[in-house]
Automatic annotation (TrEMBL):
Protein name in UniProt: Curli production assembly/transport component CsgF
Taxon lineage: Bacteria, Pseudomonadati, Bacteroidota, Flavobacteriia, Flavobacteriales
Record-linked Pfam families: CsgF
Functional description taken from the UniProt entry: May be involved in the biogenesis of curli organelles.
Alphabetic keyword roster: Signal
Amino acid sequence: MPIFMFSQNLVYKPINPFFGGDTFNYQQLLASANAQNNFEEDSGFSFDQATDLENFTESLNRQLLNSLSQDLFTQQFGDQSLSVGTFVFGSLVVEVSPTSNGLSVNILDTATGEQTQITIPN
């Protein structure tokens, strides 16, 4: 007894115009993608250049802070080099320890939890 089978050709036609689909689908796909997009641009970030007055003020602040840190260093350590140990300056905890690469200086701000590590090579 013969068995009869029927079949048809399956043809794939892409929808997306970037993959060979109909170009009239572009607007619909773009609208669908925009509707699903939950991200918003951060309008607070800009690439504005600082004015000369702002640059001067920032430079002056850096120089004053540098001078202050040098004075604190001289008061704490005198003319000698940086010694190993743990030192507290207000909310800053500075830990100086020797490593194989040189001297490691860990600075922890206990108020914010921020931490910085500086390695001074041999």
